Structure formats: structure tokens, C-alpha cells
Amino acid sequence: MASKGLRILVPVKRVIDYQIKPRVNKTKTAIETTGVKFSINPFDDIAVEEAIRIKEKKKAPVESIHAISIGPAKSQDILRNCLAKGADTSTLVDAGDKELEPLAVAKVLKKVVEKQRSNLVILGKQAIDDDSNNTGQMLAGLLNWPQATNAAKVEFVGDRVKVTREVDGGEEIVSAPLPLVISTDLRLNQPRYVGLQNLMKAKKKPMEKLKLKDFTDEDLKPRLKVVQVTEPEPRPPGIKVNSVDELVQHLKDAKII
Questions:
Q1: Residue 85 — φ and ψ, nearest 5°?
Q2: What global pTM score does this model have?
Q3: Band of the pLDDT at 216, cuts 50, 70, 90?
Q4: Residue spans of beta strands (DSSP E) within 28-177
């Protein structure tokens, strides 16, 4: 490990709680958000946990853990949650009700990385609302840093970071020096529960508040337009068969075999 300590940046997103079934609004232009519970994106929660474990278990010397969220003002709730878990500082980039595409998010994060002098970015591989799964890759490209996606295990070996990632055929191990972008998968860890006492203490930790207009030198305009949002087609009901012969006949009728 290099003599300099880790300055970890953890981007997090406020999304509809994973236990809530999303509903399309009446105009079919977006998901209904009125009166809906929001929470931290589960993959980002895993990223926060991993950063804290790196610091607690002294896998590598950590100077700071900085959490950042780009979204509505209410996103400060999930940032307080990150601070309660163990993040040192945080930044809220207030985007109002504006939905940013992954490239725009990556451009904003690049500016924050440079400002914070971060040398390790750990973020969820995707957000469960848009499932884009490309913000981390785009950020690595803009920074010209190596990247390790879908991380299931993170280890520090000498001056390199070894990441085990799940692939279709099993596991793949990649190794890279710092600075580095890592995106987290579900099996990396189990995020901890935050108690009320730690949430109260988190109110004393620093939270920088910025506006999206602070990043006007970048092209943050959307490149895609949502034409319509619809519910998925209902799955047809299944049937029961009394014998293998009957099953085979149904498969033939459906031209599956």
C-alpha cells in the first residue's frame, strides 16, 4: 500500500425503498412518488459498509470516508444515515426534482473526486430505480482510472487492490493500483443497522450543501426522453398436469418442443 492513506468517496442515491412495489402514475410518465417510502439504494448501502469495514479492520490506512448524494434536498436523510454508520463527512448536491442520467452523475462525481482528492471510489454497481449499471464505469473513464465492477470481495495486497468479482462462469479476480473505482455487488457484505444514538451523533458531523448550478461548466442535459412508462404485462396463470405424457403434449402444443 502506498504511503498515503485512503481517501474514500462513496456516492449514494435516494431511491424508493426496495420493499415497496413501484406504481406508474396516472399520466404514465413516471413512477408514482407521492406518499412513498424512500431509502438508500441497497447497492450503495453495501458500498458504505465496505468503506467502513476497510477502516475498522485496518485493511489499509484510511484518512477519510466522504459520502455524497446527488438528488433532492431530502437526500440528506440518507447522508445522515451514512454518517451514523461511520462516514466522516458528506456532500449533498441539491438537484431538486431533476433526474440526472449516469453520464451527468459521473461528471459531477469527477469534480467532487478532484475536490476531495479521493483515491478510491466505492459505489453500488447500479441503482434499483433505473438499473443503468454504468455510472461507475463512466466515472472511471472520465478519471482515466482502473475499475473493478461487481465486487464480491475486496483485499489489499501490498500496493495493489485485489477484487474478486462474480462472472457468468464463476469468479474472476482482478488487481489494480490506486487510484481505483470499485462497484459493489450483493454478496460483498451485509450492511449494519444504525441505532438512534448514532443517528443523533451524526447530526454533528459536517455536511456540505451544494447546488447543481455549481457544476454549470459541465453538460448535464439529458440525452434521453421518456416517452411512456407502463406496468409489465401480467404473467399468464400456470396449469397443473397429471402425467409426464400430458406435460409433453402441452409443450408440443405450445411449440416449445
A1: -75, -25
A2: 0.85
A3: low
A4: 38-40, 62-71, 89-94, 120-124, 147-157, 160-167, 170-177
Residue appearing with cell numbers 484518512: 63
Instruction: Report the distance separating Cα 68 and Cα 92, nearest Å.
Output: 6
Over the stretch 226-255, which tens digit does the pLDDT of each residue have? 888 888 888 888 888 899 999 998 888 888
Q: Are strands 147-157 and 160-167 parallel, antiparallel or unpaired?
A: antiparallel
Report how far residue 68's alpha carbon sits from residue 14's, in angstroms, rounded to the nearest whole number. 11
Domains of the chain, first to last: 6-230 (3.40.50.620)
C-alpha cell at 174: 482482478
Q: What one-letter code names the amino acid at 59? A: K
Over its C-alpha atoms, the chain yields an Rg (Å, rounded) of 21
Roughly how many angstroms between the first and final C-alpha of the chain, as a whole number? 57
Residue 2: its pLDDT value, please? Answer: 43
What order do you get walking across the sheet with 170-177 strand by strand? Answer: 170-177, 160-167, 147-157, 180-184, 120-124, 6-12, 62-71, 89-94, 207-211
What are 4-57's pLDDT values in tens digits? Answer: 689 999 999 999 888 888 888 888 888 888 888 889 999 999 999 999 999 998
73 close to 94: Cβ distance less than 8 angstroms: yes
